[in-house]
Each structure stands twice: as C-alpha cells, then as structure tokens.
Amino acid sequence: MKIALLQAQSHPFDYAANLKKLNQYAQQAKAESAALLVTPEMFLSGYVLNQQTQDMAKQFPLDQVQQIARQHKIALVVGGPRWVDDTVMNSAYFIDEQGKLLNHYDKTHMFGDVDRSQFVAGDRAVVITEYQNLKIAMLICYDVEFPETVRAAALAGADLVLVPTAQMQPYSFVNTSLIPTRAWENQVYVAYVNQIGIEADFHYVGLSSIASPLGKVLALASIHEEQLLFADVLPELVEQAQQLNPYLKDLRRDLF
C-alpha cells in the first residue's frame, strides 16, 4: 500500500483554511496513487488552543473530513481535538476511502504544560486498525519517544505505526535518529508526520520521515518546506525484517 505524509503548517483556530489544505493535498496524494494520507498532530485545529480548546473540540468538523475522503476516494488519518465526556483528547481520526470512521486514537503521554493544560490523556495503549491487508497502529508525538509504545504495537501485530506529531526545537534528533531506531528494533514501518513553521512559542522542525522495518529511512522531508512524502508499505518486508532480526520472537516477556 502506498501512503502519503503531509508535512504542513496548520492555521490555528481556522478549520476552514485547514480543510481547504487537506482537500488540496488529498487530491494530490490520490493523483499519486496513495491509498492513505496522514496529517500532523492537531493539524485541523492548531495545537496551542489555550482557552479555546473545548470550543474547538466541540466544533471538530468530522463530517467535512469524511466528505473529503469520499470525494477523493482516499483514506485519511487526521489530527485534531476530540470532545468526549466533557473533556478534550488530543486525537487522530482514521477514516477510510468511503468516509467511514474506522477508529480513533487518543494521545496517552502528555508533553509538558501544553498538553496537560488542554487535554486528558488517553488510556488505550494500542489501537490497531486493519486496512488493505495491513495492521496499522497510531501513536501521537511524545508517545513514540517511549520505547514501550511501539513495542506494544509490534507485539500486537502492527505492520505500520503512524505518528502524527508537532515536534519542535530543540528535539529534531527524534526525527532523524529515534524514528529509524524504533522501526529497526520492532521490525515495523514508522511514519512520522510533522508540522512546520511557528506557533506560539514553538518552532516546528519539519523533518517528517518514513522508516522501514530494516531501519532504512525511505523518505525524509526538509525542515521548512510544505510537502508530501510517499512510500510503499510492504507486508513481506515486515516478515523479512522479523526473520532477520527476531527480537519479538526472542524477547523474554516472562521477565518483564
């Protein structure tokens, strides 16, 4: 399956502008034969919402995202707030090419005050969505920096881990060093999809990437440019990597 990652700058508080951008890149990704397009963390709303977090979550335009998926016949994983039980989650929505909401994932590890002041942490460590013969897990930003999260997804059978993020200075080593390591040590594809530009005090570092189960970086974006990245996700390469590096098979789970 061919996937596309959208590295882009979000327009905070402006659903209309971000939906327009999503529509544009969904059309472009489909034209390049991608089956799935993934956006950065909190892309549709902006990340630093402060006092408007609840209002933005209540107004999340899920129906319009679903319409874009249907129109272009492409699956979407879109980052944004989710209103549930009078709280706000930092979430990723998985929508198929027919516009059906297949799943959602709520960020489980809160990064500093920016997360703790706006969101409640999710409590599902592993969320697997089966799509086009792949088992796809989702994490969000800080989650991937804990080795246990990707390992849990791999042990649950994931072939691909999608990570919408809003990674900022001075943490670009996560993009360039940690992501291929996570892929290698778990024999899974890891797709890391970042924002660019400046929002509040955050200077986003771009450098979105896709790493193979063998730890090879298949595509790497620039620091500042808005762009699409593409890669083919091959289940047979996951199997090959598991045979070459049988970490999951050899792991002494009884000791942990």
TrEMBL record:
InterPro entries cross-referenced by the UniProt entry: Aliph_Amidase/BUP (IPR050345), C-N_Hydrolase (IPR003010), C-N_Hydrolase_sf (IPR036526), RamA-like (IPR044083), UPF0012_CS (IPR001110)
UniProtKB keywords: Hydrolase
Domain of life: Bacteria
Molecular function as annotated in GO: hydrolase activity, acting on carbon-nitrogen (but not peptide) bonds, in linear amides
Entries under CDD domains matching the protein: R-amidase_like
Record carries keyword Lyase: no
Residue ranges annotated for the CN hydrolase domain, each copy included: 1-235
Nucleotidyltransferase recorded as keyword: no
Listed PANTHER family: BETA-UREIDOPROPIONASE (PTHR43674:SF2), NITRILASE C965.09-RELATED (PTHR43674)
Family of the protein in this entry: Belongs to the carbon-nitrogen hydrolase superfamily. NIT1/NIT2 family.
Name of this chain's protein: Putative amidohydrolase
